[in-house]
Write a structure and sequence with these properties.
- By secondary structure, this protein is of the alpha/beta class.
- It contains 15 helices and 21 strands.
- The strands form four sheets. Strands 1-2-3-12-13-14-15-16 form an eight-stranded parallel β-barrel, surrounded by five helices. A six-stranded mixed β-sheet has the order 6-5-9-8-7-11, with no helix packed on it. A five-stranded mixed β-sheet has the order 19-18-17-20-21, sandwiched between helices.
- The two termini are about 25 Å apart.
Amino acid sequence: MRRTKILATLGPASWDAAGISRLVDAGADAFRLNFSHGTDEEHRALLRRVHALGHRGGREPAIVADLQGPKIRIGDLREPQYRLTDGSMWVLDTLGAVGDDHRASVSLPDLPHAARPGDPLLVGDGTIELVVESVEKEALVTRVVHGGVLSPHAGLFLPRARLRTEILGPKDRADLALALEEGVDFLALSFVRDAQDVLGVRRRLRGRPESSAVGLIAKIERAEALHNIEGILAASDGIMVARGDLGIEVPLERLATEQKRLVAQANAAGKFAIVATQMLLSMVSSPRPSRAEATDVANAVLDGADALMLSEESAVGHFPVEAVAWLDRIARATEVAMASGEVRARALTFAPSRLEESVAESAVRLASDARAAAIVTPTHSGRTARLIACRRPATPILALTSQRATRRQLALVWGVTSLDCPSHQSLLELRRSAQTAARKVVGARRGDRLVLTAGYPIEGRPTNLVTVMEVDGVRAPRRGPEERPRGARRGSGGPGQAAGAARA
């Protein structure tokens, strides 16, 4: 059972029903829609197509709507590509006209005030480097220092500019409304700077019934975000280490260590972390990854990433299914080596500060001591499952929930398999559901031990109980959930009292 999840971007190479089904069969756990490209009609049709496919292979994939955000981009070009040569002159203006190999329009009205002569500019993934020669009323005249291939809507980076733009522009607000109407599970926010950017979006979502269960992913792409990561983690549901733009904002030699630090901080905060950008870039045109890419993927698994993301590889590449299959293959092999001790993963240490964290810590330790076949956790919001997962137990985690949104969102959380389960259950019924889930997912047999968490004594209580049970109703030597905890009043709970999915 692979623990690290796979997030695949959908695009022309994979967005028909057959392509989506093949990606799920190959191992995709979630899908990303990049709202920087495509039309409203295409996005709406694609979202409906993913929903229509529903369950496949026993999994229900999560859907991430990736909003464009305040990224500065050049406009349309007359040709699909132009090559800018070293030493040539290139003009950036705000006139809105279609560009060519001599000039292009930029989506920044205040462009002439954003740079000075001598300032560097970077285009696309940073391979094209410009320097400002002069500033005119509505334009910047630049000289090409290092040329390259230019495509329409490429990103433009002004390293020395300090621009405070809104996290959601007019296009983002329209895209957000469409995404909510069509039922996405996560909104990925581009170019987040601090917690206020995330909280601002949360305020905008308030009062919209369709947004009540939508999670927010903060994309870490700016150097500024690195200094504010604790607040960003507290405000968001998870982060994406977007190495493309982040690799332009910070020195390239620091990118690997920043990735490790960000993933570690997300793990410690109980939030999921996605590692993204150029994971298997060569597979856009090749059926096999390079050796360096395979090593990069394995290291992201060793770092503790919850999910690995494919961008161009699955959206426009020639081998989208093969790219997912290779991520699956590399992740599985790395996890086997970690479990056997062949390689050592980063040690995760926590000092629980709240009761729910202590319960999660206890469940993980108890599962290890009891050699349990699975940790089974009923949950309403998924929080208990996430707190257990961030401790990276060797034991599989099974989350039981009646909430479809929670099941889908847990598709991005390391090591968690979520299953549909009624919310109103007695502790005895919960034990039966746990056994059924363990038999189905991990092949548990009579006598195998399970670690079960619950909200006791009544439904709606935070997760506050951890117990060991044996499959087929044979109790483990330790106290089972039917036995009344010491100090509990008679009549306050018991086998017939509803425990249900803890609202954790």
